[in-house]
Design a protein that fits this description.
One of its GO terms (cellular component) is plasma membrane. Helices cover 46% and strands 19% of the residues. The chain is of the alpha/beta class. It has 2 domains: 129 residues, Rossmann fold (3-Layer(aba) Sandwich), CATH 3.40.50; 156 residues, Reverse transcriptase/Diguanylate cyclase domain (Alpha-Beta Plaits).
Length: 303
Amino acid sequence: MTGKATILLVDDTRSNIEILAACLQHNYQLKVAMTGIRCLELAEKTPIPDLILLDVVMPDMDGYEVCRKLKESSVTKDIPVIFVTGKDSDEDEEYGLQLGAVDYITKPIRPAIVTARVGTQVILKQQSDALRSMALHDQLTSLFNRHFLIEAATNKISRLSRHGGKLSIMMIDIDHFKLVNDQFGHQNGDIVLQAVADVLADCNRKEDVVARFGGEEFVILLDHCSLDDTQDKAEQLRSKIEQLNPGKIHVTASFGIAELESENEGFEHLLARADAAVYSAKEKGRNCIVKANKDLESDVKGK
């Protein structure tokens, strides 16, 4: 992890905030909230905190309730919370830990204790983030992997069932990739994969999910994107890939695109339609875009 970790300090007493800040300001980037509601707001804003130091007794919403809400949110559930409080009974500490806090520091604030325990939790958080990133990304291309793609698609389809909207998918298959490996070697094949992955990553929006699906196949999930808009995007990518010359190897790719018909369709069927469209693109001469029909048949579009 690069740069300073971000810590959110939450306490309704300014003097406590000042003591905590004096302990931590030289080693960490700090955010400050003096109410539980403000804590919840700041916890979801970039940069997402790496750790929250949370008072328990506050007027608008106590720290226990704040912690409960943090753990209920998909955005904030993985942020470690340390309670810093005057409530020092064993029952209070046990309750705080049961809510999901990673530590419990009692007041009066002791700077050496705060510094040591914060340092430990920040290191653990950074290690956890690194392991999570490794688990969700393809090591060669740094794109998301198949596991993350399926999880993200399931979440997006679930969201669409509640709020509506559009979701499209683009499947990309590098043409004649086996011949690339056979003729130029697997090391150059990896260079081709990385070059194509860079194009896909650089040309997509932050909300889209770009994943290496396996071998020479890539998949892009496009939020709030119609099939026609997906086709336009695919043509831009197809053209950029065609212009690549990694290791002096000419590269093209075949595209299959599909739009989710309803939340009842499910990701597997949506993916199968896009895959059938890629197969059709291969049959039609490759280096083109095929728009999938509802029933796994396909219509040729593009070059």
